[in-house]
## 1
Amino acid sequence: MDETIYPKGSTALLLIDPYNDFLAEDGKMWPALSEVAKSVDLHANISRTRGAVREAGMPIFILPHHRHKPADFEGWTHLTPSQRAAHQYQLFAVDSWGGEWYPGFGPEPGDIVVKEHWGASSFANTDLDVQLRQHGITHVIFIGLIANTCIETSARHAAELGYHVTLVRDATAAMSSESMHAAHDINGPAYAHAIVTTAELVQQLNVGGVQ
């Protein structure tokens, strides 16, 4: 268990892409994510993490992916494979049920919703960095989806910008156990300052890990 101290005035929870298309049983991506999500008890751990962070008086930032429209990416010359696939399936389509917040995981009063990210990084071409700095945030805790894409890319970006980064390994999911292993056991230790379970994080927040 990591012994990181989470400063109350400068720690935030960053929740990435809490959309129906990822988290709901009828969501477009749920069939691909469900096996891993169920194995880590994803929904319960996202809820538990959110609750513990709120109880500790820390802010929550919602980091949403771009909500697709049929004409998006026209004229683009260098779409990534992920962008191309997301556009093909119209994930999180504008004005669709799949592009709505999963019940209970959307923003609540006081939460901050940053601009939608077009690729995997929640920092690239958004206001996330300025929002964090203006709120005095130095420590960021990442949860949400997907572990080896948006979570990993955003968390790496955060580390490069000088933030203290925590990954919560069972409050995220991926399309395979191999992807989860790569995200948390191979790649994560190269940049993350702490890689913890939900239970470990909650214990830290409850027993003196906040100052």
Note: The first strand starts at residue 11 and ends at 16.
## 2
Amino acid sequence: MASNLLNHQIDDILRAVLEDASGDVYMVNPSRDAIEEFVSVATDFDGSLPTVQMLANEQTLKDVMGDFIVASNAADLISDGALALRTLGETPENSLCLTEDRVIAVVHAGDRVGGLVTDEADFVNDTFAAYETRWENAEPFKLRTPPISDVRETLSEEISPEAEADFTAILNSLETARGDGDGLDEVTISLVVAAKNEALLYDISKWGEDVGIASKATFSRTKTKLEDMGLIDTEKVPIDVGRPRLRLKIGDDRLREADNGQIATVTQSILN
């Protein structure tokens, strides 16, 4: 990657950086789109990933990681040692990608993106050293979302393989999972999957709390909202000791008749 990367998309530039890097990489002041694209490119990367140390604006990270799809995949990268997140105290003017051999300034011009490359040794060494120091002094960003691989593995083990397959299919059909009107949130998805597979509310909420998706109280509140809207239903299941538990069931025929690729769309139409 000795030449400038002009007339490329941001994912092309990031992929070129990952393919070319022989050591650690710094991503400095990435845009929201760049963070999302990095997680997508790194998740699908075919090969050995370098460790990417991302120094980003704290609010930008919070906004991006509000999407469960992005955050859970980022958590997987962190778990694998391919990504570390820290926050910028003072935001630089430029967005940069730094390797031990090159500095790439990422420049946005309308709908065009360019990666301006320099490999001048003294400049690269000085810049890399400067951001090594900033990294050492930066505050870690605490990502509270669990890795998607843990979510899938434990859902399969604790609820059922069918529930995990449904959960994965719904996520794959979504562009975002925020629950802010643009996508379903992870708790709603979990409860719809549990209802489709007639799991107990106790089991799905305990799983969700244990894996780190949300508290049992959040699952209970969301269940009540979905039940009030007729999206899911419940039936009491007696147990030997204590209060009966609730089995979740699909409550709307439109949702009952939808296949996995349609569940997200049908659910959103009912909620909206």
Note: The longest strand covers residues 103-109.
